[in-house]
Write a structure and sequence with these properties.
Strand order of the largest sheet: 2-3-1-9-8-10
Structural class: alpha+beta
Distance between the termini: 24 Å
Helix content: 10-25%
Largest sheet: 6 strands, antiparallel
Radius of gyration: 18 Å
Shape: globular
CATH topology: Glutamine Phosphoribosylpyrophosphate, subunit 1, domain 1
Number of strands: 16
Number of domains: 1
């Protein structure tokens, strides 16, 4: 799977940029999307216009087969939410009940409904929403109505998943390291385990939501610095408070 978000939607952390950057503009003339299609002839590419592009392959034959779905909003089928999901959810039955979904709902529908509930009602903080998902997974969600990205991976990093920055500071995400090298050069790294990224909140840990993240320089086999990884800083604590709207708790503006 592949997503390239314009930096207005997904601004890459500066630490991901290698001092020896040899990246290109992944969005110019659909460069990286075309490369993805050339490697995966049986694939789907969705042009998000000024927000970027997402793509997924239909020819992946492995236990972590990516799944894709869209939520159609209104009778004229305006696209609302796109979601790419790879892996599986272990507590899928519990989450279907929690979000009031029918028995046929798959992982993609669950992720979309969890996000929509967070966006519209905010009964739980974002870190709890992701922490409640048990399994081996990585997902990329894009909300067309608010031009918002929501990205996460599990606490063990079970599914190969990377993020990086291209020459224009656009955010690139993929499960394919070679795809990342094509678009980002050395300016990419594994997506941090147990973390999620949002357009408004940046990178945060859902496993340890009260701790800050610290960056650790990443060095390649030739000894050159190439981006950075992020880890939980056990010695740091965030100042946090429960947001309120009137007298009711509401986290919908805090994801």
């Amino acid at each position: 799977m592949l997503a390239v978000f314009d930096n207005s939607v997904g601004k890459s952390p500066e630490a991901l940029r290698s001092p020896h950057s040899d990246s290109v503009c992944a969005l110019k003339d659909g460069f990286l999307a075309h490369h993805f299609s050339s490697l995966h002839p049986v694939s789907v590419t969705i042009n998000l216009h000024e927000a970027g592009v997402i793509a997924y392959s239909m020819d992946r034959q492995n236990p972590l087969l990516p799944r894709f779905d869209t939520h159609f909003h209104d009778l004229d089928c305006l696209l609302d939410i796109f979601c790419l999901f790879q892996g599986h959810i272990e507590n899928i039955t519990h989450l279907k009940q929690q979000y009031g979904l029918n028995k046929t709902a798959n992982e993609v529908i669950i992720i979309m409904e969890a996000y929509r509930t967070l966006r519209d009602r905010g009964p739980y903080p974002a870190d709890q929403v992701v922490r409640d998902i048990h399994g081996k997974f990585a997902f990329i969600l894009y909300d067309n109505s608010s031009k918002t990205a929501f990205v996460a991976t599990d606490t063990d990093g079970s599914v190969p998943f990377f993020w990086g920055t291209d020459s224009e500071g656009n955010l690139v995400l993929s499960d394919d390291a070679e795809m990342m090298k094509k678009g980002c050069g050395r300016s990419f790294a594994p997506f941090p385990k147990g973390c999620f990224f949002t357009t408004s909140g940046g990178l945060r840990s859902f496993e340890h939501p009260l701790n800050e993240l610290k960056l650790v320089p990443r060095v390649d086999s030739s000894g050159q610095v190439c981006g950075a990884t992020f880890k939980v800083d056990a010695d740091s604590r965030k100042e946090t408070g429960m947001p309120r709207v009137g007298s009711a708790t509401n986290w919908s503006q805090n994801y």
